[in-house]
Amino acid sequence: MIKKLICASVFCCFMFHAAISEAAQKAALSLQWLTQCQFAGYYVALHKGWYMEEDIDITIKPGGGDLNPLQSVVSGESEFGTKWLADFITVKSQGQPLISVAQILQKNGLILIAKSKSGIRTPHDIIGKRVGLWSADFRVQFYALIHKFSIPKDRLAVRLIGWSIAPFIKDEVDVVNAMTYNEYLQVLDSGYSDKEIQVIDFEDYGVAFPGDILFTRQDVIEKHPKLCEGMVKASLRGWEYAIAHPEEAVDIVLKYDKTGRLARTHQIRQMREIIKLIQADKYPLGCHQPDQVRFVIQTMSDNKVILNTVEASSVFTNQFCEESKK
Predict the structure, then answer these.
(1) Which of 1, 82, 212, 298 is 20 to 30 A from 38 via CA?
(2) How does pLDDT run across 192-238, given as a tens digit for each residue?
(3) Domain boundaries, the chain
(4) Which CATH class name applies to 24-107+210-324?
C-alpha cells in the first residue's frame, strides 16, 4: 500500500511538472556579451526555475563577436535582448519597433583611466594626450565630456582601439575607456595598484549614462503581454537574489560558463561592481528614470550620434517593472 502511494505521488509530481513544461512558452534572451556576472540576475532566475514559474521556457544566448542582440530581436530570432541604453537609442532613432522593459544598471560603469604618473587628474589634463577609445556609442560620453569643458577635438590624439586593455598596459595610449567591472579590474590584475591608476568618472562631471537594459519588440508586448510581464518579474527576482547573495550568484554564473574562461575571484569582484551600478538602494530595481533617458537622448543628439528625433516615451515602459512590485 505504501509503495502504491509513493508511486502515485511520484507520478502526480511528474505529471504536474510535465504540464508546466508543456504550458510554458518558449522564448530566447540574447545577451550583448559573453557569459559573466554582468548578467547574473538572468542566470540566477534560470537556475532557480523562476522563469518556468512564470510559464516561460527561456533560452539564454551569450553574445560577443559579431552577435548583436538588437539584430536578433528585430529579426525575431530572440524575443528579448540586453544592451546599453545608448546603443538601444541609436537603433530606436532608425525607426526600429523596439522598447525597453527594464533598466537594470542605473549607471553604465564606463570610466576613463590613466596612470597616476602621467599627471592626468581632470578632463583638462587630457589635452595633448593620446586617448584610446572603443568604437560606436562608447565614445559619446567622452565627446560630451570634452564638449562640456570646451576642449577642441584637434587638441587630442584620439585612437580607436579594440576591446583589449593591452594598448594602455603597453603605454601606447595615455588615457583609455574602461568598465569598472571589467577592464579596470584587468589593469589591477596586471600588477598596478589602485593608487597607481587615476580614474576619471563621467558621473563626477555630469555626463553619466544608465547602462544595461532588458528590451523586446513592440509586437511581443502587444501579442504576449503575459510573457513580458513574467519575463520582467522573474528577471528582477533573479537580480534581487543576486544582490542579496552575490557569491552564490557567481557560482551559478560559473555553471553556465561553457568556455571555462571565467575566474571565480574576478567574477566576485565584477559582481560587487555590478551591484554598485544597479543602485537598488537609490532607485526601484528595473525601473527607468525618465530624466536620465531624456539626458542620454539629448546628449546623443547634441553630438550628432542620432540625427532623428526620439521621444523618451517611445524608448521605454515602466509598466512591467511596476507590476512586478505589486
Answers:
(1) 298
(2) 999 999 999 999 999 999 999 999 999 999 999 999 999 999 999 99
(3) 24-107+210-324, 110-205
(4) alpha beta
